[in-house]
């Protein structure tokens, strides 16, 4: 059974720091992995999606890497800002059949960036 | 472009009452999903619809029913609400391609007393 774990559960850093959020999964037979951001009382916003054949994806100050063989992904945030404060979730996508799939979510890392 | 719209945003029910959560997307997406989010348990899939006219059970379907009314709309119904269904419910959608990211609504916070 695929399980997705995110460590740490919470992180508090001063503004300007570079930081890494971790996501691990137990079964390497994933189709892709997606990182989301969730602000309090809001839905999830997609940040980056990495296909299983890719090693990394970048968007602005965000860089996500994927190592399928070790079952790990990291989300790197450069020069963190207070506006980055949110909960970050990763989700692995499994292909069940030709037209159905399944996302399995981690429980998230709650990030606080203080001025 | 509104994306994924959910109504209502908040709801309080008494045990045994019924209600329908509404979801609509304007991105011409084929697949739609209902998740619930509970503290410490992450998001769990309740039901999904891979395409218009089809629905399938997810991980936690008991106590729920769904209707894919058309390509835009996917509703979730609680026939007889229970306190265990207190949660935040999210609707999501994506294009048919597995390579496409999921887009989420802002959620419905449901409390069952």
Biggest sheet overview of chain A? 6 strands, mixed
Q: How far is it from the N-terminal to the C-terminal residue of chain A, by CA?
A: 41 Å
Q: Tally the beta strands of chain B.
A: 11
The class by helix and strand makeup of chain A works out as mainly beta
CA-based shape of chain B: globular
Radius of gyration of chain B: 13 Å
Quick one: biggest sheet of chain B?
Answer: 7 strands, mixed
Query: What share of the residues of chain A lie within helices?
Result: under 10%
Q: Note poorly predicted spans of chain B.
A: none
Number of strands of chain A: 11
Query: Which parts of chain A are unreliable, with pLDDT below 50 for 5 consecutive residues or more?
Result: none
The run of helices and strands of chain B is EEEEEEEEEEE
Would you give an account of this structure?
The complex is a heterodimer of chains A (115) and B (113). Helix content of chain A is 0%, strand content 59%. Chain A has strands spanning 4-7, 10-14, 19-25, 32-38, 44-51, 56-59, 62-67, 72-77, 86-95, 101-105, 109-114. In chain A, strands 2, 4, 5, 9, 10 and 11 form a six-stranded mixed sheet that branches. In chain A, strands 1-3-8-7-6 form a five-stranded antiparallel sheet, with no helix packed on it. By secondary structure, chain B is an all-beta fold. Chain B contains no helices and eleven strands. Chain B has strands at residues 4-7, 10-13, 19-25, 31-38, 42-49, 56-57, 64-68, 74-78, 87-94, 103-104, 108-112. In chain B, strands 2, 4, 5, 6, 9, 10 and 11 form a seven-stranded mixed sheet that branches. In chain B, strands 1-3-8-7 form a four-stranded antiparallel sheet, with no helix packed on it. Chains A and B meet through strand 4, strand 5, strand 9 and strand 10 of A and strand 5 and strand 10 of B.
